[in-house]
Structure formats: C-alpha cells, structure tokens
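Q: Start with the shorter request: fold the first protein.
A: Done. Sequence, then structure:
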Amino acid sequence: GLTRDSVDAIAVTQGPGLVGSLLVGLSAAKALGYALRKPLIA
C-alpha cells in the first residue's frame, strides 16, 4: 500500500468524461492534495 510520505503529488485529468464526474473527481483530488499538503497536477 501507499503511505502519505510516498505520495509526491496528486494528478487529475481534464477529460474526456461527463462534466459532473470530472468536477467530483477534481474536488476530491483538491481536498486530498490540501489534506496531504501535496501539489495538484492538472
């Protein structure tokens, strides 16, 4: 499994996909990046 220290950054995609699904995924990634204090790569 992964540990917090082994994660260097959080990456997300901008598409393709349904807008609602992409917004939920982006929000989750932003929250995870904020909580772990890691950069978000889009």
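Q: Next, the second protein, separately.
A: Sequence, then structure:
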Amino acid sequence: MATVESILKNSQEPDDTKHLIRPQVMSLILTHKSRVSISRADQDAIKTLNAGRSIVVLPANKRRSTVVLDKAEYLRRAKVLLGDPNAYRQCDRDAMKKLVTQLNTALVGLQNNGAISKIERLNIKPSV
C-alpha cells in the first residue's frame, strides 16, 4: 500500500480520482490474501446455482457464506447504489487509465525486486 500511496502522491491527478483508487487497491489486496477452500460438494452446488439465469450467486461480505439473489433484484440494487452521488462519482477514464498504468508499473517493480511473485502481481493487478 505504501507504493500505491507514493504513486498517488506524486501523480498530478485530482484528489477525487486518488480517493477512488485507494479503496479499490485495498480491496484487491485484502481479497488476494484471503483464500477460503470449500468442499467439492459446496463447489458443485454453487456451480449448479450459477447455471441458473434468473439468480446471482455471490460470496457474502462476512464469514464463509454465499448469498443467492434474484437477478432482477440484484440489478435494481446495483443501479440504486451506482446512482447515489454520495457513494459513487464518475471519473475521467483517461485519468484512471494513467493511474492504473502507474500502479502496474509499480507492481512490476515490486516483482522485479522480489517483494512479490508474478502470481501475486497478476492477482492484484488493477485494470480499467
């Protein structure tokens, strides 16, 4: 995270754009570190549920749970969240591409220095 902060600090991007990137990177880092293995039966059950077109199967935010939602309800909730100007703001795509490039360059540097492996770099690599 220190490398990301350094890149953001030295970047000429507006603070709003920087604030959008921080939680995304942190989320990627936290997601990468948590590896939960589930039984083969549970994997098969989730695969069967995912085959249905009218539902959405997601990992829950807490613990080792799975959430099954009606797809129409899921899309409605997502639109409400994305439409909330207090939760999300649309950002300049070119500015985001530039920051993603800088982050990827920093990750390659970390890999070259032996701080992270290639697999780790690819798992936390941001994209636009």
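Q: Describe the second briefly.
A: The chain has one domain: 2-124. Residues 93-112 form the longest helix (20 residues).
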